[in-house]
Structures are given as C-alpha cells and as structure tokens.
Hints:
By secondary structure, this protein is α/β, with parallel strands linked by helices. Helices cover 40% and strands 21% of the residues.
Amino acid sequence: MEAKRLKLLFCQTQFKLGGQQKVLLTIAEELGKKHDVTIYYENHSFFDLSKFTLIRPNKIVQLLNLFLVLIKHFFTLNFNKKLIADDWHLRNLKKTLAKKEYDIVILLNPYILFVDEIRKLLKTKKVVCWTHNIFENYVNNCFKDEQKKLFSSMQSADQIVSLERYTAAKWSEYNPNVTIIHNPITIDNDNKRANLKSKKISFVGRIQIDMKGLDYLIQLAKLLDPDITIHIAGSGNSREERQFG
C-alpha cells in the first residue's frame, strides 16, 4: 500500500547564503518528491525558491509587528535585541500561519523556542526541532538570555534532529526523542580526487571557531609537511577573527 502523502511545513527566518539554508532546501526538495512541502520564511532569498510552495508574512504586517514589539519592550524597559527579534518573529508567524493545518512542522532557529505556541497556533500532529549547530552554541550563544524557554520548548518537541552524536546526546538529557541526520552532500565532485600536487589546502566559510572546526584545522596544520599551506577565505565577527588570526 502506498504511503500517505504528508503535509510538511519548514519554518526558517531567511534565505541568505548559509549552510543551514542550503541543507534545508536540499532536504525539502527531496521530501517534496513524495510529500507536500511548504516553507515559511520572512525575508531575503539568495537561493532559487521558485520550485517550492512558500508562505511569507506581508511586509506591512512585518512593519506593524515590529512597531508593536518595540512599544511593548519600551514600556517593559527590556531592550535586549535578541528578545525583541524573537518576539517579532513569533508575531509574524502567528499573523501568517494561524489555523493552518500540517501533519509535521519542522522548526529551525529561532522557531525552536516556540513549540508550545506552534501547537496552539496550528493543527499539527508532530512538531520537530531541527538543531543545525552544536549544543553549546544554542545554550551559551543564540539563546543565552532565553535558556529556560529553550529547554522547555525542546522538552515539548515530539522530535529533535541533530547533526552529530555529541549534540544529540546533550539534547537527549532533556528529550529522549532525538534523531541524528547528518548534513547531505550538496557538492557533486563526479567521484574525482585531487592529485595533491598543489600543496595547498583551502577553507571557505564563516570564521566561527567552535562551529566550523577551525580549532581542529589549527591542530591538523601542525601535523602537515611544512611545504603545505592553508588558504582561508571568509569572515566573521572581529573577536573571532582576532582569535583565529
């Protein structure tokens, strides 16, 4: 018997150039061969999104919601930029997705904060939190001022998806339903291998030491032959660039 065709919703804030966005679109495209996939996002579209079913909050709605959020935080004397942004994202989502129905909703940062709100907002059978980064980045960086809400939301999720074993093990302390799904390979090299004659190793990406493994790259560099050079193309915040340099 043919499997049921499911209605799936991915929630992602924007589609600037980024690994999380690229992976989401790769997985959504594959799932779309057997299921009905919708992507909710707010702004920016570096990637070609023409093949997907999209839902976006109206620009006027976004501006109105931003105004209301700023007024709210002004009167509560809470000027934390991250809290303001997350409150704004939630308001946009509520105004756009209210009463819609999906079998599975997949939340990415920052929507992983809003599992309970999503359940009330949408008719859905399952809410999945997809964590694209390591555990500490969520707890100590992205949501350092929202840790209580983060842990509560992750505990409420029906499923948590992690990229690797370490982060999966950390989230399993809060929710036993954790699955590991590694990033798909999105570059086709036609099974070719470098001949290693150039003696150059290239890194292209954001300068973020804990997330991109640059600390490991430094350790490995010490083991290489002295005639091998490493070339870095990318940027990050000034603190990380100074630390890496």
